[in-house]
Amino acid sequence: MSARHFRVPLGGPYTTRVSAVNASDATSGYWGVGVWGSFIWGKTTQSTDKDARYVNCFLQTVPDDVTGKKRVYTVKRPGFGTFVTPASGKKGFAILIWTGQGTGQKVISAFDTPNSTIYDSTTSLGAITGVATGITETFVGTTPTLTVTGDDSTAWYYDTGVGVMTKITDVDFPGNAGKTLAGTFAHMDGFACIMDTTGALWASDLNAVTPWTSTSFDSANAYPDKGIGCVRFKNFIMAFGTESLQFFYNAGLTPFPFAKAVAMTVKVGAISADAIAQISDTVFWCGSTPQGGLSMFQYDGNLARVSPPEIDAILILAGAANINMTTIRFYGRSFVLVKAGANTYAYCIEEKMWHEWSWATPLAYKCAGLSLGGTMVNYAVSNVSTAGKVFLMNHASLVFTDDTVAYTARIQTAKEDHSTNRRKFYNYLDIVGDVEDSASPLTVSVSDDDYASYQVLGTVDLSNQLRRLTRLGSARRRAWVMTHAADTPMRLEHGEGEMTVGSN
Prior knowledge:
By secondary structure, this protein is an all-beta fold. Helix content is 3%, strand content 50%.
């Protein structure tokens, strides 16, 4: 038998199996470690743990414009520290960077249930009734103004002249007129727009948030579905229904200024206002069609489905009521975070790839980012953690813990047989990737039985130049697993080694 060189790619597509609920090592824990590996127990909404998985890490493609080639790395995601603690013991429900006021760096957040208090950093701006479902900003004339909606169909505003959260009391405001609000405000051309659950889109009076007209609305009624919420897309208001999406533009009409762009209507709806998110002029949502199922959609002028069947299966298992979304940017890439039940899945827009986030406590229910001057940070609030914190991802000083708790990045490859089903005898494996500044242990395991069990081969230190394991056993088809629990960065390119192929 002659020795052969082999390579283990550490990047690739997310798991390609759709199946019933399986045990999930990332969320349910281990049951013993022995000669045969790490045995797993528990059930989750994970559709399957088989094939390639990337937990707390993502793929990064680096092209070489000279050679035309590209290198693919798997990178550990950064974590969240603490920015401020405005409401110790409380949960967070909304966050906004108030760009139109002061220096444009005010961090506005909403904490507590069943009634929320709105904070500017740690300073209370006042309380609202109901849990805050969204914080938005606009100008009333030249006055920067915040608007906040509650889950009791109330709406509130704050400006520097009033100096406290004040309820919108006009009897013609839909929430005061017996309507149930759907989502939060979208602002355009001096109008504050909001939907109700009947599918009507309402607009405030011009250059105002407090006066409303009882007839200033139109129904998004291209299809007979219910209203979900509205967002602004360029010079349109997107009005989501349960099974359709309509676009409105400012036509200068009266009393309702907007007209429908009928030709742009889409027969795909959204499951909830909490499952709609944006990055710049791109809108993402978890949607449904009359034919059933749940999928992730993207609209940037064209409609595209961005979730493969495997993610769709996870969404179905989680259930529409247990899905929410937010967006975040780091490492020059944009991510849509989809919390589906107890698990969080992330879609990288640039790479068009999915991965998972594993949390001790989910910290990024809603995120907001700021890139101004020398400040480049992400903020987040959690509707699970009762720490009462606004969490911080500081690009100038990244950490690899979540609220001081270390998390584990996991790379699990697809099975590889190196083009033959003969038994392979693995002599050694080198881990190729960045050399870290301090001790950074990486544990290498394998599964030779279709992910039924895992055997730990050993640990290497990523701060060493050579990261090699030897005498690695044999298998016909093998999947490799790399786990990194240190609070340090990790960027890996591939594994490579030597093996011999048996005669049968």
